[in-house]
Amino acid sequence: MKKIFLVLSALFIGLTTLNAQSTMQNTKKNFDKQAVITPLPVLIIATYDANGNPDAMNAAWGGQCGPKHIVFELSAHQTTENIRLKKAFTVSFADKKHVTESDYFGVVSAKKEPNKIKKAGMSVTKSSFVDAPVINEYPLTVECKVITFDEDGRGGARVVGEIVNMQADESILDENGNIDLGKMEPIMYDSSKHYYRVIGEKVGNAFSDGKKIK
Ligand SMILES: Cc1cc2nc3c(=O)[nH]c(=O)nc-3n(C[C@H](O)[C@H](O)[C@H](O)COP(=O)(O)O)c2cc1C
Predict the structure, then answer these.
(1) CB burial class (10 A; 0-12, 13-18, 19+) of residue 22?
(2) Is residue 209 part of a domain?
C-alpha cells in the first residue's frame, strides 16, 4: 500500500512539473528578428570635424568589449566622417538628467545644425589625451583612440576604439572614490518600445550570488 502511494506521489509530482514546463513554453511568443538585447546603452560620441567644430551623436549599437575597448556600428554620419579623419572620439554615458539633450544628439545631424552641442545647452573642453571634445555636462566620459575602422562601403563603419583615459565627476563617486551608477543614473535605450529607461536598483552581487546554488 505504502509503495503504491509513493509511486502515485512521484507520478503526480512528475506530471505537475511537466505541466508547469509546458505552460511556461506555451506563454512564449515567436517574433521576427528585432533588436531587443538589453540593456542597449545610450552612448554619446563626441568628435571634432576638420575645422575643429565639435559634434555629438547618440549611439545604441555599441558597447564595451573587454576592459580597454569600445566598439560601434556607425552609419554614414558627420560623426563617422570625423572619426575617420581624427582617429579619435570620446564617449559619454547619457544620464537621467540629460535625456532630452541626449535624444537631440540622435535626431539632428551636424550636417544640418553645426552648433548642435551649443544648441542643446551643453559645452565642451578639448581632451588632453585625444583629438576629441569632452562634453562637460555628462558626469562620465571615456577618451578613445581608433584602432580599427572597417568601412562598410556605404559611408558607415564598424569602429573599435582603445580607451586611453576615463574621467568622472566627483558627484558620481562613492565614499571610496569609485564610480557609483546609483548616483549617476545612466539611461538605457529600450528598443522594443523606443523608450529611454533609467538603469535601476541593485539586485545582486556578480561572481557571488550564483555560488548559493550547491
Ligand atoms: C536612440 C538612438 C540610437 C542611435 N544609435 C545609432 C547607432 O548605434 N549607430 C548609428 O549610426 N546611428 C545611431 N543613431 C542615429 C544618430 O545618432 C543620428 O543619425 C545623428 O543625428 C548623427 O549625428 P551626426 O550626423 O551629427 O553625427 C541613433 C539615434 C538614436 C535616437
Answers:
(1) exposed
(2) no
Q: In which domain, by residue range, is 181 found?
A: 40-198
In this predicted model, what pLDDT tens digit does every residue of 77-127 receive, in sequence order? 999 999 999 999 999 999 999 999 999 999 999 999 999 999 999 999 999
- Domain of 124: which CATH number? 2.30.110.10
In ligand 1, which atom is closest to the CA atom of 103?
31
| pLDDT reported for residue 25 | 59
DSSP H or E segment with residue 78: helix 78-86
Q: How many domains does the chain have?
A: 1
CA 81 to ligand 1: nearest atom: 27
Task: Please list every protein residue whose CB sits less than 6 Å from any atom of ligand 1.
Answer: 55, 57-62, 73-75, 77-79, 103, 106-111, 189
Kindly give the distance from the C-alpha atom of residue 82 to the centroid of ligand 1, in angstroms, as a whole number. 14
Amino acid identity, residue 87? K
